[in-house]
Write a structure and sequence with these properties.
The protein is an alpha/beta fold. It has one domain: Rossmann fold (3-Layer(aba) Sandwich), CATH 3.40.50. Strands 3-2-1-4-5-6-7 form a 7-stranded parallel beta sheet, with helices on both faces. Strand 5, helix 5 and strand 6 form a beta-alpha-beta unit. Helix 4 packs parallel to helix 5. It is globular. The structure holds NADP nicotinamide-adenine-dinucleotide phosphate. NADP nicotinamide-adenine-dinucleotide phosphate (NAP) binds next to helix 1. NADP nicotinamide-adenine-dinucleotide phosphate binds next to helix 1.
Length: 246
C-alpha cells in the first residue's frame, strides 16, 4: 500500500503492535487516529507523537463502534484506512469447561469487533479513491495453540472473513489487507523473551506493507502461513507438544 498521505484509524493503537505501527505511519506523514479503551494509554501515545489524534473506543460495544464511526466520518472526512488491530488473548483450556467470560469477550473483541467496525465505515471507505481495510490476524489462525483455543479460532475466523471481504470489494476502491504476526514481544504475551522483538517486527512489517501484497507476513511467520492443507495437524501437534513441554 501507499505509505504516506493517508488518514488512518487504528484500533488498539495505544500499545504494542498497534502503537508501533501507528508511530511508524505517523512518521511517514500520515494522519493517524488511534483508539482503545484506556484514555491514559491513548494520551501517553499522542503526547509522544504530536499531531496524532485519539478517540476512546470499546470494540466490544456496538454502540461505541457506531458512535466512533460517525465521529470519525465527521471529524476526519479524508479517512481512507481502517486498521482493525485491537485484540485480546486469555489463556484457557479447550479440554475442560469453557469459561463463558473468556469465550464471549474474546469472540466479541477479536472477531465481532473488526466485522462491526468495518461495517460501520465501509460506506465511507468506498467513497474514497484509494482506501484500505487492514485486519490483524495471527499465525495462530493457521497453527492453533491449545492454550489459546478460542483466540486461535477467532483469528482463523478473521482470516476467513478477510478473504470474503476482499472478494466482495474487488471491484471497488477498497483493498483488504491482512497482517498475520508471529509471536511478538508485547504486553499481550507478557513480553515473552522468545518472541520477536517489537521494533524488529514493526520495521519488517512496514517494509512488506509498502509493497502491493495482500498478506503482510514477516519472514518467520511464513512457515506457519504455509501450513494449512491435508497434513496441517503435523505442525499443529508439533507446536503444541513443544509448548506443553513434550
Ligand atoms: N503479540 C503477539 O504475539 C501477537 C501475535 C499475533 C497477533 N497479535 C495481534 O496483534 C494485535 C495487537 O496486539 P498486541 O500484541 O499489540 O497486544 P496489546 O499491546 O495488548 O494490544 C492490544 C490493543 O487492543 C486494545 N483493545 C483490547 N480490547 C479492546 C476493546 N474492547 N476495545 C478497544 N480496544 C481494545 C488494547 O487497548 P485497551 O486495553 O486500552 O482497550 C490494546 O491497545 C491483536 O489483534 C493481537 O491479537 C499479537
Amino acid at each position: 500500500m501507499k505509505l504516506s498521505g493517508n488518514t488512518i484509524f487504528i484500533t488498539g493503537g495505544g500499545s504494542g503492535i498497534g502503537r508501533g505501527l501507528a508511530e511508524a505511519l505517523h512518521k511517514l506523514g500520515n494522519k493517524v487516529i488511534i483508539s482503545g479503551r484506556s484514555k491514559e494509554r491513548l494520551e501517553d501515545t499522542i503526547r509522544a507523537n504530536p499531531g496524532m489524534a485519539a478517540v476512546v473506543l470499546n470494540i466490544q460495544d456496538p454502540a461505541s463502534i457506531n458512535a466512533v464511526a460517525q465521529q470519525l466520518i465527521k471529524q476526519y472526512p479524508d479517512l481512507n484506512v481502517l486498521f482493525n488491530n485491537a485484540g485480546i488473548y486469555t489463556p484457557e483450556d479447550p479440554s475442560g469447561l469453557v469459561d463463558e467470560d473468556i469465550l464471549v469477550q474474546t469472540v466479541t473483541t477479536n472477531l465481532l469487533g473488526p466485522i462491526r467496525m468495518t461495517a460501520a465505515l465501509q460506506g465511507h471507505l468506498k467513497s474514497k479513491e484509494d482506501a484500505y481495510i487492514i485486519n490483524t490476524t495471527s499465525i495462530l489462525g493457521f497453527v492453533p495453540v491449545a492454550q489459546g483455543a478460542v483466540y486461535s479460532a477467532t483469528k482463523a475466523g478473521l482470516h476467513s472473513y478477510t478473504l470474503t471481504q476482499r472478494y466482495m470489494l474487488k471491484d471497488t476502491s477498497v483493498k483488504v489487507l491482512e497482517i498475520a504476526p508471529p509471536l511478538v514481544q508485547t504486553q499481550m504475551i507478557n513480553y515473552d523473551p522468545n518472541a520477536m522483538p517489537l521494533a524488529a517486527f514493526i520495521e519488517e512489517t512496514m517494509n512488506v506493507l509498502g509493497t502491493d501484497t495482500d498478506e503482510v507476513l514477516v519472514e518467520s511467520a511464513k512457515m506457519y502461513r504455509n501450513n494449512p492443507g491435508p497434513n496441517e495437524s503435523v505442525l499443529v501437534n508439533h507446536v503444541n507438544d513443544m509448548m506443553s513441554g513434550q
